[in-house]
Design brief:
heterodimer; A: alpha+beta; Gyrase A, domain 2; Alpha-Beta Plaits; Elongation Factor Tu (Ef-tu), domain 3; 3 domains; six-stranded mixed beta sheet; six-stranded antiparallel beta barrel; 8 helices; 19 strands; 20% helix; 34% strand; globular; B: alpha+beta; OB fold (Dihydrolipoamide Acetyltransferase, E2P); six-stranded antiparallel beta sheet; three-stranded antiparallel beta sheet; 4 helices; 9 strands; 18% helix; 33% strand
């Protein structure tokens, strides 16, 4: 059944991933594992123990120079000036209409050196966008081919990494990173993730990826660490209400509409989209991304029609069966009038209207 | 990969769409194959027809959903639904764990038992799967 897929890009881990018997799929032009053994098992391992993901398809863009900070302040709605070296920030690249070019992480390496982590599907677009907006003393480089990336996620992640990293990692605060090494291989160790659990994203040279992947799996075996695919990554991030570019956010919606107001800092000075965001903040948004769960039987999927107040209002942007909550959950845009917790809604599943209600998000929050 | 590990019991008949049927007299028990459950992954939801519904061979009778995908189930043979496996409502994972046993989907009173001849044998279905299963 496993067919060679010509034209797909592969990460440095493709050989070990194939050998592990993972099911492979085309994701944004990359041949990636969707699951190793079971999406449910992998999902629950991350919630209760730990999981290891190959996310080397993600892109990295270097922005460096005297005017680097100024450029990022202009292109993103969050306040980059608040970052100290060693700190990371979730933010976005916005069009002049305040819609998403991409959602990204900004890493501040020192006063004038930044690294952006961007979605695989948007690397070329983002790189062009940043470069075209750059002026003055700033270098913008697509560094994607210089990095493999592993995501070690789950309550046991810090212990496992702590045993083989060459520096102390347990004390790295959330959304901070160090430039250190693992078993002698240089690595950026970042306490970030896309699962709603504690964990690390580890940026490595491609030639170190296989060694560190195998070493982590070996070291974490007794902790219950297992390799995980993009299937579990998707159910984990959705339970944590983390948006997926291309599904929940894109060039038609703004951070305020997407419920990501925490990344909008209108007091930081001018930036692309600020005018629109200021107006939306004053007058309110017309539509808002809300989470819902189904009260009747069925599973909402991306693209299924959404109804509220007796009429069709849009479609499901993300939906799944939640392995942690054992419920059907989803996200979708609702008109302001119906975007309220407790509001009754319907999802049309193969012609049948299935009832649900808008609920508070995140759907799942890790025990603190 | 998975096809080499899949099981194809010899006493069953199969469709190209990966259903199996066990014919006993004029009653057929229907499920999805081991290969199908393995391709689908963790089954979390099974939607089956009402008792008494008349089915024509090849008609879509319900859906089976894993975490990641939806798959239609087709009637292998014509008949009337006698019974559906109610235990799958609370234990859909039985389709993965025991596709030819506890994970059965429904029993049908066959109205055209001669249609059985058109279905694949275990050997025929195995070749179909080895060719890619499409």
């Amino acid at each position: 059944m496993q067919q060679e897929a010509p034209g797909l890009r592969t990460t440095p881990l493709i050989d070990v991933i194939r050998k592990a018997g993972a099911k492979l799929v085309d994701f944004a032009g990359w041949e990636m594992p969707v699951q190793f053994r079971s999406v449910l098992e992998e999902h629950l391992a991350v919630r209760s123990r730990a999981g290891l993901f190959d996310v080397s398809h993600m892109g990295e863009i270097r922005v460096e120079g005297r005017d680097a900070l100024g450029l990022l302040q202009k292109l993103t709605p969050n306040d980059v000036a608040k970052l100290v070296p060693g700190q990371a920030q979730y933010t976005a690249l916005l069009t002049p209409q305040a819609t998403f070019v991409d959602d990204i992480l900004v890493y501040r390496r020192d006063e004038q050196r930044f690294l952006l982590c961007v979605n695989a599907s948007n690397v070329e677009k983002d790189f062009r966008f940043v470069r075209e907006n750059a002026g003055g003393a700033v270098r913008v480089e697509d560094a994607s081919s210089e990095y493999a990336q592993l995501a070690l996620q789950g309550p046991r992640a810090a212990d496992i990494l702590g045993r083989i990293a060459d520096q102390e990692v347990r004390s790295i605060p959330s959304y901070h990173f160090i430039e250190g090494s693992v078993l002698g291989s240089p690595a950026i160790l970042s306490r970030t993730g896309y699962t709603g659990e504690d964990g690390f994203e580890i940026y490595l040279a491609p030639e170190s990826a296989e060694k560190i992947w195998l070493a982590l799996l070996e070291e974490g075996r007794e902790d219950g660490l297992i390799p995980c695919g993009l299937g579990a990554r998707d159910t984990l991030r959705l339970e944590a209400r983390m948006p997926l570019y291309g599904n929940d956010i894109d060039e038609t919606v703004t951070p305020l509409e997407a419920g990501l107001g925490f990344m909008v800092h209108l007091d930081k000075g001018d930036f692309l989209g600020a005018v629109i965001l200021r107006r939306q903040k004053e007058r309110g948004v017309e539509k808002k991304l809300m989470g819902f769960e189904l009260t009747d039987r069925g599973i909402p999927r991306h693209g299924y029609p959404l109804r509220a107040g007796g009429r069709e209002v849009g479609s499901v942007t993300s939906g799944t069966f939640s392995p942690s909550l054992k419920k059907s959950i989803g996200l979708g845009y609702f008109p302001a009038a119906s975007a309220r917790i407790g509001e009754t809604i319907e999802v049309v599943i193969r012609g049948n209207a299935v009832s649900g209600q808008i609920v508070k998000t995140p759907f799942y929050k890790r025990p603190s | 990969m998975s096809d080499s590990k899949s099981v194809f019991p010899g006493d069953l008949r199969y469709t190209r769409e990966h259903e199996w049927v066990r014919v006993e007299g004029t009653v057929g028990t229907v499920g999805i194959t081991d290969y199908a459950q393995s391709e689908l992954g963790d089954v979390v939801f099974v939607d089956l027809p009402e008792k008494g519904r008349a089915l024509a061979a090849g008609e879509e009778l319900g859906t089976i959903e894993s975490v990641k995908a939806v798959s239609e189930i087709y009637a292998p043979l014509s008949g009337e639904v006698l019974e559906v496996n109610e235990s799958l409502r609370d234990h859909p994972e039985r389709v993965n764990g025991d596709p030819y046993g506890e994970g059965w989907l429904l029993r049908v009173k066959l109205t055209q038992p001669s249609e059985t001849e058109k279905l694949l044998s275990a050997e025929g279905y195995k070749s179909h799967v080895e060719e890619g299963g499409h």
